[in-house]
Amino acid sequence: ELRKNKLIEQITHLKKKKNAILLAHYYQAPEIQEIADFVGDSLELSKKATDTNADIIVFAGVYFMAETAKILNPDKMVLIPDADASCSLAESCKPDEFREFINEHPNHKVVTYINCDATIKTMSDIVCTSSNAEKVIESLPEEYPVIFGPDKNLGNYLAKKTGRNLVLWNGSCIVHEAFELDKIINLFKEHPDARLIAHPESPSHILDLATYTGSTSGMLNFVKESSSKKFIVATEVGILHKMQQLVPNKILIPAPSIENNTCACSECAYMKLTTLEKIFLCLLNETPEVTLNKSLAEKAFKPIEKMMNL
Ligand code: 13P
Ligand code: SF4
């Protein structure tokens, strides 16, 4: 505890001294969310990255998020506490293979989920996040067939929602893919008054049971507005921190997952690479820094800008 308090003190001091802002995703550990200047979902964090006067952005999240912040702020220093914080969706989508996929489907519009590398973004007509994906698909003229990647679960959900025929890349999120249907059904038996809320990265057999499907910020809003008192939450467990603060009198149950080596809970190992110590060290040493080739960054900016302008 003493060490934790010391680290928080040092991080606060360095942030002030270097005019740095700490942005954190809802999936970060509670102590990191607590010291962040701003906590949000992917879209909110991208927006926040564009309207800060800070000289340095420290991104407590995963690499594609920090990379997006850099694309939006080429003149700012963007630091990521652990450069190995990847994402299984980004990992599933390698540029050469995605280029081939696009070539196999000529004349298609290409929509990519923001959970991908900058190079994939350069191949896209428009980018989306889970909170604006439906709107993004609907913004495309109906005469165009659409390629959607890298998340096939979000893609399936969008195809159902919009009635559009989407050609899907075969990627998925290791966290959302691991929710176990039988265990969720057993939970319902124990708690018949609970409502299932799920992130659209979850597979359709989970989403079919959900009262609400939406992004992390959408889920937070839903539990606040809903008259229900009990929720089974199918997304990364980090969200429960903010959620419980928002609805202190409601009961939140994390949706159970297939057991893995470390736990039977839905933790994103990439998100959890961030620690207070790594935040302190990266602020102190100004490394690891996210750097991008200028022309790549300019090309990747266009489909993100299109999304932001919607
Ligand atoms: P949000 O867009 O809801 O923040 O989701 C990001 C993410 O990585 C979900 O796994
Ligand atoms: Fe990627 Fe899934 Fe982790 Fe989100 S929860 S960062 S989609 S691996």
Automatic annotation (TrEMBL):
It catalyses: iminosuccinate + dihydroxyacetone phosphate = quinolinate + phosphate + 2 H2O + H(+). The lineage of its organism: Bacteria, Pseudomonadati, Bacteroidota, Flavobacteriia, Flavobacteriales. The keyword Protein biosynthesis does not apply. Belongs to the quinolinate synthase family. Type 2 subfamily. One of its GO terms (molecular function) is quinolinate synthetase A activity. Its EC number is 2.5.1.72. The gene is nadA. Iminosuccinate binds at residues 25, 42, 113-115, 130, 199-201, 216. This is Quinolinate synthase. [4Fe-4S] cluster binds at residues 87, 173, 268. One of its GO terms (cellular component) is cytosol. GO terms for biological process: 'de novo' NAD+ biosynthetic process from L-aspartate. Binds 1 [4Fe-4S] cluster per subunit. It comes from Neptunitalea chrysea. Pathway: Cofactor biosynthesis; NAD(+) biosynthesis; quinolinate from iminoaspartate: step 1/1. It is found in: Cytoplasm. InterPro entries: NadA, NadA_sf, Quinolinate_synth_type2. Its cofactor is [4Fe-4S] cluster.
